[in-house]
């Protein structure tokens, strides 16, 4: 069990006092959800909703970056695959 859990309603880290999720908790979550990025996003999305209720003065973009934005950075280790269509358009009978 981690000591880096959120202290609500101020959303600081119980382990180090930084804004939650702190760098340590982010590392832990990346490891815990390494094979389940959608589950990680859903988990953090639920915390995002709670934080938005607790801190209505915080801009939505700031909360999004804090709770969800960093999860996409982890996905960048795998290069995006560009797919090109190889389909051909059939000739119009004339």
Could you explain the architecture of this structure?
The chain is mainly α and 94 residues long. It contains three helices and two strands, in the order E-E-H-H-H. It has helices spanning 23-32, 37-54, 60-75, and strands at residues 6-7, 12-13. Strand 1 (6-7) and strand 2 (12-13) form a beta hairpin. The longest helix is centred in the middle third of the chain and has 18 residues, at 37-54.
Low-pLDDT sequence parts = none
- Helix vs. strand class: mainly alpha
Put simply, the count of helices is 3
Report the radius of gyration as a whole number of Å.
20 Å
Q: What overall form do the CA principal axes indicate?
A: extended
Strands, total number? 2
| Proportion of residues in extended strands | under 5%
Distance between the termini: 71 Å
List the secondary-structure elements in sequence, H or E.
EEHHH
Percentage of residues assigned to helices = 40-55%
Read across the widest sheet, the strand sequence of neighbours is 1-2
Note the main sheet. 2 strands, antiparallel
Mean pLDDT metric: 86
Please render the helix and strand layout as text.
Blueprint: E1 6-7, E2 12-13, H1 23-32, H2 37-54, H3 60-75
Antiparallel strand pairs: 1-2
Helix pairs in contact: 2-3
How would you describe this structure in keywords?
two-stranded antiparallel sheet, mainly alpha, 3 helices, 94 residues
Q: Would you kindly provide a brief summary of this structure?
A:
The protein contains 3 helices and 2 strands; from the N terminus they run ββααα. With 94 residues, it is mainly alpha-helical.
């Amino acid at each position: 069990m981690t000591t880096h859990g959120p202290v609500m309603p101020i959303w600081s880290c119980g382990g180090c006092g930084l804004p939650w999720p702190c760098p340590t908790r982010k590392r832990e979550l990346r490891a815990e959800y390494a094979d389940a990025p959608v589950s990680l996003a859903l988990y953090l999305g639920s915390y995002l909703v709670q934080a938005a209720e607790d801190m209505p003065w915080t801009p939505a973009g700031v909360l999004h970056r804090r709770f969800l934005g960093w999860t996409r950075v982890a996905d960048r280790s795998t290069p995006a695959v560009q797919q090109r269509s190889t389909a051909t358009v059939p000739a119009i009978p004339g």
